[in-house]
């Protein structure tokens, strides 16, 4: 997606979150502390790009104890977005979903 945006003249950068969690750490619970740390790291990565760059994030964030699907189900992308919003101290999050009506 970042490459497509770049071909259209938008300064976009892909942010890889696959290794955002330090696997040598002692993470055993996906509690408030885990989410605060995750939000801080994601926010820091986005803010490092500056205000003129569009960040592209897939929603897949690292390996977690027990696996993303086991721990969060199919909403792990929503969890990633929510943590990004907290890390940015944003006022609003909008999620648009594909829905068959």
* Number of extended strands: 2
Percent of residues in helices comes to 25-40%
* Largest beta sheet: strand ordering: 1-2
Question: What summary fits the major beta sheet?
Answer: 2 strands, parallel
Alpha-carbon distance between the two ends: 27 Å
> Topology as H/E string?
HEHEHH
Low-pLDDT segments: none
* Helix/strand class: mainly alpha
Shape: globular
Number of helices: 4
Rg is 15 Å
Beta content: 5-15%
Q: What is the residue-mean pLDDT, rounded to a whole number?
A: 87
Family: Belongs to the aspartokinase family.
GO cellular component, one term: cytosol
GO biological process, one term: homoserine biosynthetic process
GO molecular function: aspartate kinase activity
Topology:
Elements: H1 2-7, E1 12-14, H2 32-47, E2 54-56, H3 68-72, H4 76-88
Helix pairs in contact: 2-4
